[in-house]
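Hi P.,

Sorry for the delay on this. The queue was packed all week, but I finally got your sequence through. Input first:
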Amino acid sequence: MPETLEQIERNYGRLPLAIVSGSRRDSVTASLEALRLLEKFELLICAEDYEKGKPHPEAFLLAATRLGMSPQSCLVFEDTDMGIQAAIAAGMASVKIPSRWQRVKVDP
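Then the structure:
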């Protein structure tokens, strides 16, 4: 998603970046390595790191704690409604990034 990549590039080195995923660490790591993005993230929170999945806020709260940040200082970029619900429940601001198939093409 170009917008997400733009945010990563813009904020790398300026703000702590983390991935919070419902996927297993090996899958997340492989994807980030393939995209040459792994080194941009200070923290990966993956399925094996928490018990309650989204929309429960556990994973986002764990990320904030490990980064030493308050939830109110975090901004979540999410592609699912359950992820947005989890961010809200964690007290974090959020931005929904729709999947490619959810986007509406607008003619110029």
